[in-house]
Design brief:
Layout: E1 2-4, E2 9-11, E3 14-17, E4 22-24, E5 27-29, E6 33-39, H1 42-56, E7 58-59, E8 64-65, E9 72-76, E10 79-85, E11 91-98, E12 102-103, E13 108-112, H2 117-123, E14 132-137, E15 162-164, H3 168-182, E16 184-191, H4 192-201, E17 211-217, E18 220-224, E19 232-235, E20 252-258, E21 266-272, E22 275-281, H5 296-299, H6 304-312, H7 323-330, H8 334-346, E23 350-353, E24 358-361, H9 370-374, H10 376-384, E25 388-390, E26 395-400, E27 403-408, E28 411-412, H11 415-420, H12 428-435
Parallel strand pairs: 3-14
Antiparallel strand pairs: 1-15, 2-3, 4-5, 6-12, 6-14, 7-8, 9-10, 9-13, 10-11, 11-22, 16-20, 17-18, 17-19, 20-21, 21-22, 23-24, 25-26, 26-27, 27-28
Helix pairs in contact: 3-8, 6-8, 10-12
Amino acid sequence: MRSFANQSHLTHGSLALAIAPALTPSGIVASPNFYKGFAIYPQVLARGLLVLGDITSTRYFKYVPEALRDPILTAQGDRLRAECFSACNGVYVRMDLLQSGFAGDISFGTTNVDIGTGLRTALTNVKQGDKLHLNIGNDGFTTTHFGQEAGGVVGMDVIHERPVQMPDRWVRALGNSAEIHRGMIPVFSLKSAQAQAFVMSLPQATSKSQAGWLTPGRTGAKLMPRASSTAVYISGLHRLSALKRIMTNVQEITFYMPESREPGPCMVDVALPGARITISLTAEAWQGYSGEGALLTALAQPDVLEDVEYVHSMLGFEAALNEAEIARTWNMNDDRLHAALAHLAVSGKLGYDAHDNAYFHRELPDEPDRILKDNPRLVAARKLADAVTPSGENAWLVRSGNVDYLVQGDRCTCTWYLKHKNSRGPCKHILAVQLQGGDVAQETDILPFRL
């Protein structure tokens, strides 16, 4: 729980974005300042913030407008990243404000930024040729005074205290979305006019869900019933509707899907002057990113906690982690490193940027029991770990209650596996084998849970 001491506001060409106390390289800072200077592309900044506001206040599955949530803001020296999820948790959006869009230096740290209804209304009036001074922090805020100056009464500043609470499912969703983004590959891109035409053709947020294979053409991209080598599967096309806010600023859109090229989650990366906006969608409009499953296999690796401490000690709000350097420093193989990075991702400390093909560091408040609380199947597997016995080559028996379950490779005889296979992550018996060091390969793509 944090709090905003001031409200964000836009007055006379000066945009002040209020932020909560921040976690920085030097610890917690009560009144941080991430940037103070001019925005080179003020309209892109304003419209990008409106895209975030539209998405975080919308429930796309059975459309219902919801109360705003405060985006996570991370300063990484060469960029600012603002992230949030839709009210239904089925849409992830990130705006990367790059150094080329700022006339000044950006600091380091992670916090929340206030985007209220009043600010959203004001941002709609920002024009392309406007000059906009930007202050991201809690220094230099001025508020309206009241009182009679002629009578010698000293004015009083209006103090605004609003609590900021990170939704629990956002932290779970950050970890699962990072793992899913890590497996995304670019399939095709639309340039300038084609990209803008595609955005113009998008259905409204209130429209019915449409699914199919987005296929590029001379005038943009359209939904087709069949796959092709240059098509990307998408479910819930209306969930991209917020991009209409930035339609005239779009320079290029790149479409991503899982490396398997099977229907599942998808992602779009939108290039803008001095910025990028990434929107990723779950495999179906009724699914949410906050379901457990995507990271369970990595979390069950033996000795992962020790590796997590090693990796965490090297993090410093990097925009792109150098995995090779981390592996070399701590003498880790790929499996150990991935498990440690996945553990940090599920704690909300790492995200994944498919455009840069790299993890990035954000620092959320520590909650040591969060991983166990958010992954009850992992807790159950740890209780069963001592009940695992070998039963032939690549096979194990796991005693649960009075029943022995047979785990062979990535298969199990329990009812969970028979119902879900590995589409929602491995069952507790497979996890128990992994905790004991068994070589269990997961061959099926992991998708997020239904809401």
